[in-house]
Each structure stands twice: as C-alpha cells, then as structure tokens.
C-alpha cells in the first residue's frame, strides 16, 4: 500500500488500510456497587459459630480511598492550648561554629559555599536559631575541623 501525499497535497490511503478496522461491538458492564452485605453476613456467621476465634478490627480508612491511616485528628488543633517548644541548636554549638569559622578565616558565605548550603543556614546556626540537622552539622564539622555534635 502506498501512503503519502498525492498531487492535490492531501493524504492518500489505499482501501486495504480502511478494511483493517475492526467494527465488532463491545459492551462493557458497569462495575457492581455492592455494599459488602455478603461479607458482613459471613463475618457475623463466623462470630456466632466461634466468638473467641474471630477478631474484627475496624480500620480507620476502611471503605475509603485513603492511602494511609492516621490517628491524627485535625479538630484537636483548635482545642489544644499546649505550649510547645522547638529544639534549636544550643549556644555552645553556635559559639563553636563561629569560633571555628573565624579561626579558618572564613566568612559565613565562604562556609556556606564550602558545605553547599545557603548563607542564611550558616547565619541561623551561628545565632542559635536553627533546628539542628545532623547532616548539616556533619558538613560543618568536616569543613571547620571542630566537633559540633554532642555539645
């Protein structure tokens, strides 16, 4: 068969291509929307026959399309009046970073480039406002030659 443009600049196909289509009718059945009554009946029958051997556990996301179950209830956030503190790097760590950086003659920006972090990260660690990350502390220890973890 010949495919391509004819002299009128339109696509031409042969009859062989048109006859290769399959026009048989296919009927699709809708998915049954069962309520699980048969399953519930089977569970009830099993519980009645031997109540000590059957344990029914209701899952938090049972019958839903959620991927993960969680015990977190967002409604509790409005009621919760707890005072929570986020742990930050201590003053000892901040002073050790600053002293080590100055001993090497580096600026905050130079240290940030050396450990492949933003200068703001170094600033937060030196002021003691950063939430500690073991990976960043390890990079700083290696770059400065100062022990920071465990202070």
Radius of gyration: 34 Å
How far apart, in Å, are the first and last alpha carbons? Answer: 80 Å
Task: Look at the helices and sheets and give the structural class.
Answer: mainly alpha
Beta-strand content bin = under 5%
Give an account of the 3D structure.
There is one protein chain. The protein has helices spanning 15-18, 37-49, 76-79, 91-104, 108-115, 119-127, 134-144, and strands spanning 4-5, 11-12. The protein is an all-alpha fold and 151 residues long. The protein has a two-stranded antiparallel sheet with strand order 1-2. The longest helix is centred in the middle third of the chain and has 14 residues, at 91-104. It starts with a strand and ends in a 7-residue tail after the last helix. The model has no long low-confidence stretch (mean pLDDT 78).
Describe this protein with a few key phrases:
151 residues, mainly alpha, two-stranded antiparallel ribbon, 7 helices, 2 strands, 42% helix, elongated
